[in-house]
Design brief:
Length: about 300
């Protein structure tokens, strides 16, 4: 499929301050005004992004290896030295999971931030991790809803209807086209949009001295996401109770929830994080969690 772009534009927030306050800036989705190196890099990111989850690294890193491979064209371009490339790859070896159909926006944005980092010695590299982490929840929610919840169902319905009517081979072909054509277009458009928005946005943040604020906000949003995921997916319900001579027994879980709802899950998650930082294998943590769960269950505690 050709990645030939359109000349559509998108209006973003007005520029604050200055004589041009209230004027809107338009971000073009065309790559005609970009340099040959920029276009080559964006095409590389686009094609590499199809393998983002082909190198899945388990629950600890998820698609980290695929993300590093996807943005390798940017790292290779902006960091000519081996040391610079290694630092960039280490920076992106952390957990990554965004719906692949829309994840190219994050890749384009990160490419723009890596460019700024290579040009500005005082660039805060923590902002790259923070922005990337803050995009995972919102973008995955949008991507899953559109591509997995709606488009895939529509494509499958059309394909199965064609197969059921006359058994034609057009059924699977229709499914592949209905699902993949919008997906490919979305991948390319978001790659360009992420890079353009990133370049313009980061420059304005530096000029206004707001980069530190963005880093803190993105970091806070990332922490909120981790806290919400911990509360949602790490379950601990103690059934142990203290019998009383008269009246109902005292349920320990009720008092734990009164002190701090979700206290045990968050403490256990933080404990696993500490062990991970001490290079304890994820496999050992999984085995240990299973043993602890079975043991507490057999003892009648949970």
């Amino acid at each position: 499929m050709s990645t030939q772009e359109t000349s559509t534009t998108q209006t973003i927030s007005p520029e604050s301050g200055g004589s041009q306050s209230g004027a809107s800036q338009k971000i073009s989705l065309s790559t005609k005004d970009l340099s040959h190196e920029d276009r080559k890099m964006l095409h590389g990111i686009f094609w590499h992004s199809f393998n983002v989850f082909a190198m899945y690294c388990g629950g600890a890193r998820a698609g980290a290896s695929g993300f590093m491979w996807s943005i390798w064209p940017a790292i290779e371009r902006f960091y000519p030295t081996k040391e610079g490339r290694c630092d960039a790859l280490k920076r992106h070896s952390t957990w990554y999971n965004i719906t692949s159909n829309v994840g190219t926006f994050c890749m384009g944005l990160v490419a723009a931030m890596e460019k700024e980092n290579s040009e500005k010695p005082d660039f805060d590299t923590h902002s790259i991790d923070s922005v990337k982490a803050s995009l995972m929840g919102p973008m995955s929610g949008i991507g899953d809803a559109i591509f997995w919840g709606v488009l895939r169902v529509i494509a499958a319905s059309v394909g199965m209807a064609l197969c059921a009517d006359n058994g034609t081979v057009l059924g699977p072909i229709a499914f592949l086209l209905i699902y993949n054509v919008p997906s490919w277009i979305c991948r390319w458009v978001l790659t360009v949009l992420g890079y353009r928005v990133g370049s313009s946005f980061i420059t304005k943040l530096y000029e206004g001295g707001l980069m530190g604020i963005l880093t803190k906000l993105a970091g806070t949003l990332g922490l909120l996401m981790i806290g919400a995921m911990t509360a949602s997916f790490v379950k601990f319900n103690m059934i142990l109770s203290i019998p009383l001579p008269q009246g109902d027994p005292v349920m320990i879980q009720t008092y734990l929830d009164t002190i701090f709802k979700g206290l045990v899950p968050i403490l256990y998650t933080l404990g696993c994080l500490k062990l991970l930082r001490k290079n304890v294998s994820v496999n050992w943590l999984i085995i240990g969690t299973m043993i602890i769960g079975l043991g507490l269950g057999l003892l009648g505690i949970v």
